[in-house]
Amino acid sequence: MMRREFKLPDVGEGVAEGEIKKWLVKEGERVKEFQPLAEIITDKVNVEMTSPFTGTILKLRAAEGQTVKVGEPILEFEAEEDRPVAETHVREDKSVPAQTASTSPVTASAAIQASVPRATPAVRKRARELGIDLSSVRPGPDGRVTLADLERIASSRGARTEEKREGGQAPGREDRVRVHGIRKRIFERMAESKRNIPHFSYVDEADMTNIINARNILSKKYGEGVKLTYLPFIIKAVVEALKEFPYLNSSYDQQKDEIVLKHYYNIGIAVATDDGLVVPNIKDADTKTVEQIAREVDDLASRARSGKLVLSEVQGGTFTITNVGPIGGLFSTPVINYPESAILATHKIQQRPVARNGQIVIRDMMYFTVACDHRIVDGAVAAMFGNRLIEYLEHPFLMKLEF
User: Which residues are catalytic?
Assistant: First the structure.
């Protein structure tokens, strides 16, 4: 038997590094093939790394919280069989999504250490800075500890941290936040999008009164088991409009100098998490009912916020919707989710006086913004797409909803 190294495997989809969230083994421990070794946080999802060998752990080369590049050694071991060791034993974290307070969610990490609540890398880092033991913090209803929880504890006990002095500044005048994980990927993707895509935005408004009525009807039909928001209706309308304007559901293949028109509709939904925006997508949204989309939206959003998405759920998108309405504002100019060719931002629905047949009436109106890649989509095409979208939103029966 020989002393050998195990390197951080490549989990695919352009992931270049991972953070060791938690070691599930210790030095001197004997492990079996496929036994979980560690929980890894990548820039897209959390994964569980399993052992590609049966043998003994000799040394852990990376500490919890440390970021390691793909291909770097993370542990040394002694294998019981003298054979090549594969480095692809990584499986996506497919733990069940957060459940209601009356049930006990069973996840891989909870089974190992139920006493430690879930927390993002930024929260764990801040806890270390404040000297707070996460296992002593009471998590929120979803089982997660947030930055607000930590700051509240620190404030209540008068905790103060010594900040790095730089440029002669007094302690506490500056904070430095390391860019890593999902936030680092956001840095890269947003810069890539703005660098490569000449954006332009088209703004219009839609009368959502009939969508509100349709939602009220279907909410009663589906019952309390379905969290029905306006987003599933918007997704349905977007898909119908994309079928007529396929260049908004495309991407540019720079190597072959070709526009790739996609006749499938994987609609991304931007979800705000503690680590930044994550965009899982509804696969083949054109084949699903409003109820199916509603259930999937709720599930994806829940698991995005708890860090339980898998790679397949954040790749392969064709068009993205970001809803900034609940936050406020009049309208926005969203950044395209590269390499897609367009994105839709929806805004708050509010009652406003509008003219209808020569009369002033009160209607539920919503501004929306369509941002497009001007290399692929002309302004007139974006406007026609917007007009068609309005038509579907204002006349939901055109989408053949199941009432």
Answer: 374
What is the spatial distance between Cα 15 and Cα 102, in angstroms, rounded to a whole number?
37
Residue pair 117/134 in contact (Cβ under 8 Å)? The answer is yes
**CATH number of the 200-399 domain:** 3.30.559.10
> Would you state the structure tokens that stand for residue 397, as one six-digit string?
């029966």
pTM above threshold 0.85: no
Top CATH class of 3-92 equals: mainly beta
pLDDT in tens, 150-187: 877 877 665 444 444 445 555 667 888 877 777 888 88
pLDDT digits (tens, 9 = 90+) for 111-156: 333 344 666 656 776 777 787 877 778 777 667 788 778 877 877 6
| Sequence spans of domains, the chain | 3-92, 109-156, 200-399
Query: In the numeric block, which tokens belong to residue 30?
Result: 């004997």
Same topology for domains 3-92 and 200-399, yes or no? no
- Number of residues that make up the chain: 403
List strands edge to edge, sheet with 359-373: 199-207, 359-373, 342-356, 319-323, 267-269, 281-282
Give the CATH fold of the 109-156 domain. Answer: Dihydrolipoamide Transferase (4.10.320)
> CB-based contacts of 30: which residues, under 8 Å, 6+ apart?
55, 56, 57
